[in-house]
Task: inverse folding
């Protein structure tokens, strides 16, 4: 029997990711992990790429995970979990196992968009029955806020510091969800922790798709985004409502918006509370801000067109 | 602290959820306070807490686990409260 996706019912389930982990106060990643594991209806085995989530949830002898969990290097979370999944299938074939188990790999944007990209692409192409979850906080936060290919244009990081030479990251961010959908996998989706029901429904869909699936989840980081410790969920909501982070899914090639804001909020509402975009509001950077708005709007218009079918 | 030869080979941890032995409540600078009469039992605080520190029994919010709460304040910000009155407010520690 699966638990109804109602908070009251879900709160009776055991926390499979416990307190005592050492993520920063107000981090988005543990909220995402909690939601994902609550949504899963079968026992889960997970692999975790190096990153914030991995280093602070498993510090020698202390693990926050109550599920079988493997720490793997930055570049091969997808390869590791695909190997485990293959072993599981072999065991099933030989009659050594009869349990239904699901396989999930967690990686941050550095371990997914950049370093773990080829192993992720390979695992998706080989067709393993697994879900890859990227918690995207938009930079290498664990090592001190270095830019990644998920960092949005204009954001200030320690390796593209905003100053007199460059106004933050000059390049546009990579659209990984689309790249993963282009692998023609049965399910790829984008989610946000502020929209918990949408996120959990997507996890259930992905885990029951019977093939390689991918979810990209925005994960606010108050240290790297230079925001307040209490606004992770508020910023996640603003990211969705300004269409910076649209909620959509691509199921067997069909794109569908799972949330369409009644009125699209201006992007500056999402940017203003974040210190990493502070310099964009200086008069000399007006063009840069317009450029960022144009990037986001073009992506939203394309998505509207694709989902109109 | 265990010596190197007392550790399980392969850095394997056999006890799941052992992080509960590490209390993170001392990180807190601000403390969430629950005002029961303003609580509508929406459980958003429980769902959005990054530290699994909102205690819920039989589907009802019952307070906070201060041994682990890092005082981020997400619960207080997200709390809808009753008629505009928050059921969770943040107070500076040591006051």
Result:
């Amino acid at each position: 029997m699966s638990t109804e996706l109602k908070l009251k019912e879900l709160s009776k389930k055991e926390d499979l990711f416990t307190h005592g982990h050492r993520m920063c106060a107000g981090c988005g990643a543990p909220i995402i992990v909690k939601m994902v594991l609550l949504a899963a209806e079968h026992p889960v085995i997970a692999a975790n790429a190096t990153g914030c989530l991995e280093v602070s949830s498993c510090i020698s002898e202390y693990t926050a995970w109550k599920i079988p969990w493997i720490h793997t290097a930055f570049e091969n979370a997808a390869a590791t979990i695909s190997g485990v999944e293959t072993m599981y299938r072999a065991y099933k074939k030989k009659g050594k196992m009869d349990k239904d188990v699901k396989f999930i790999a967690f990686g941050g944007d550095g371990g997914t968009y950049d370093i773990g990209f080829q192993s992720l692409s390979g695992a998706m192409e080989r067709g393993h029955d697994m879900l890859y979850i990227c918690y995207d906080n938009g930079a290498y936060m664990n090592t001190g806020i270095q830019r990644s290919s998920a960092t949005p244009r204009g954001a200030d990081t320690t390796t593209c510091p905003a100053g007199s030479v460059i106004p933050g990251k000059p390049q546009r961010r990579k659209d990984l969800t689309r790249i993963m959908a282009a692998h023609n996998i049965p399910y790829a989706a984008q989610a946000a922790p502020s929209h918990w029901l949408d996120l959990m429904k997507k996890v259930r869909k992905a885990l029951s798709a019977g093939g390689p699936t991918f979810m990209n989840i925005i994960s606010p980081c108050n240290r790297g985004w230079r925001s307040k410790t209490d606004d992770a969920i508020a910023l996640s909501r603003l990211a969705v409502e300004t269409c910076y982070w649209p909620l959509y899914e691509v199921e067997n090639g069909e794109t569908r918006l799972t949330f369409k804001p009644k009125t699209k909020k201006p992007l500056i509402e999402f940017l203003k509370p974040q210190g990493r975009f502070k310099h964009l509001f200086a008069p000399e950077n007006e063009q840069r801000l317009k450029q960022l708005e144009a990037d986001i709007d073009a992506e939203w218009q394309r998505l509207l067109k694709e989902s109109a079918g | 602290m265990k010596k190197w030869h007392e550790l399980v080979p392969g850095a394997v941890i056999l006890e799941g959820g052992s992080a509960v032995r590490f209390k993170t409540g001392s990180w807190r600078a601000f403390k969430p306070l629950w005002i029961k009469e303003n609580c509508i039992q929406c459980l958003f605080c429980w769902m959005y807490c990054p530290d699994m520190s909102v205690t819920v029994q039989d589907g009802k919010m019952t307070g906070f686990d201060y041994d682990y709460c890092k005082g981020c304040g997400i619960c207080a910000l997200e709390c809808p409260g009753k008629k505009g009155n928050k059921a969770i407010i943040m107070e500076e520690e040591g006051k």
About this structure: The mean pLDDT of chain A is 97. The longest helix of chain A spans residues 286-308. DSSP finds eleven helices and ten strands in chain A.
